[in-house]
Write a structure and sequence with these properties.
- It is found in: Cytoplasm.
- There is one protein chain.
- By secondary structure, the chain is an alpha/beta fold.
- It is built from 13 helices and eight strands.
- It folds into two domains: 167 residues, Rossmann fold, CATH 3.40.50; 94 residues, ProC C-terminal domain-like fold.
- It has an eight-stranded mixed β-sheet, sandwiched between helices.
- β6 and β7 form a beta hairpin.
- The longest helix is centred in the C-terminal third of the chain and has 22 residues.
- The two termini are 40 Å apart.
- The protein binds NADP nicotinamide-adenine-dinucleotide phosphate.
- NADP nicotinamide-adenine-dinucleotide phosphate (NAP) binds next to α1 and β6.
Length: 279
């Protein structure tokens, strides 16, 4: 059992994703005073800290040597800035990291090897690939611990995300598959929702009613799979009477190539992520 309320956690770069992860960490039990945020300016940090219910590193440690003091004081350091800032940020962070502190990187495309080099061979290292629904406490996160990261450090990383996400441990080489299946996937579902809402409007519903119909059905369908563990095929059979409306709808979607198209989209996301990492 990991006790998070005794830990000090600093999120460096609490923007869209770092901010969502900071909320997840608050939800996991880290207190407002012990969750410290640090953005590029005092103003932006204060705004994020107010919005999330966390402390500003500038207020807590003063405006001189803010980053160094925050890092030196932290049991967990979350990297939430853009990947292209790593080269400039790492030398400012690395000398101050406590020996046993856990570094959690959200940086897409920065491998464990790159991170280990950037942080002078620090071993308590976990890459995390969350998706945006973590912002509402329903994310999915792929965790990739470093080879030398201990079991208790891995458990700590899981505990940070567990209240707001489905946590999946993956080997690092599968990160691109995670991007195809989860990282980019909210956008596929948003697109499907958009198309269905437009069609419901075309069939005469107001946009508000169309949205209720489609989004409510999406939430309900996801809950069926999530809460019962039923396989998608069997859940679909339960809605599909022989010769009925659903059977005709499914036949039309299959004729349009829905399976191949979804697979192609997922493969395109994974492939693009792979190429980005090679650059
Ligand atoms: N968005 C996603 O779906 C997603 C998914 C998985 C992983 N990621 C990863 O998450 C990371 C952040 O992406 P994002 O979309 O959240 O970007 P973002 O909203 O632009 O956030 C970047 C954050 O970094 C801060 N920052 C910039 N320079 C800094 C400095 N010198 N010191 C401290 N903080 C600094 C920014 O602060 P200011 O606001 O003050 O400039 C901002 O809070 C990236 O590495 C990305 O690969 C994103």
């Amino acid at each position: 059992m990991v006790h998070l309320n005794d830990l000090t956690v600093t999120v460096i770069g609490a923007g869209n994703m770092g901010g969502a992860v900071a909320r997840a960490i608050r939800k996991a039990g880290v207190g407002a005073e012990r969750l410290v945020l640090l953005n590029s300016s005092e103003e932006s940090t204060a705004k994020a800290a107010r919005g999330i219910g966390a402390a500003s590193a500038f207020e807590k440690y003063g405006s001189d040597a803010t980053l160094a003091s925050a890092v030196a004081d932290s049991h967990v350091i979350v990297l939430g800035f853009k990947p292209y800032h790593l080269q400039a940020m790492a030398p400012k962070i690395a000398p101050h990291v406590q020996e046993g502190a856990l570094i959690v990187s959200l940086l897409a495309g920065a491998s464990l090897e790159t991170l280990s080099e950037a942080f002078n061979g620090h071993t308590a290292l976990v890459r995390a690939m969350p998706n945006t629904p973590i912002a509402v406490g329903k994310g999915v996160v792929g965790l990739m611990p470093g080879e030398q990261t201990s079991e208790s450090e891995r458990e700590l990383a899981r505990a940070l995300f567990a209240q707001s996400s489905t946590v999946v441990d993956i080997p690092e080489h599968q990160v691109h598959g995670v991007i195809g299946a989860a990282g980019s996937a909210p956008a596929y579902f948003f697109l499907i929702a958009e198309v269905m809402i437009d069609e419901a409007v075309a069939q005469g519903f107001t946009r508000a009613v169309a949205t209720d119909l489609v989004v409510g059905t999406m939430v309900g369908s996801a809950s069926v799979l999530h809460e019962t563990g039923e396989a998608p095929t069997s859940a679909r059979y339960a809605v599909t009477s022989p010769g009925g409306a659903t059977a005709q709808a499914i036949a039309a979607l299959e004729e349009g190539g829905i399976r191949a198209l979804m697979a192609r989209g997922m493969r395109a996301a994974a492939e693009t992520s792979r190429k980005m990492e090679e650059r």
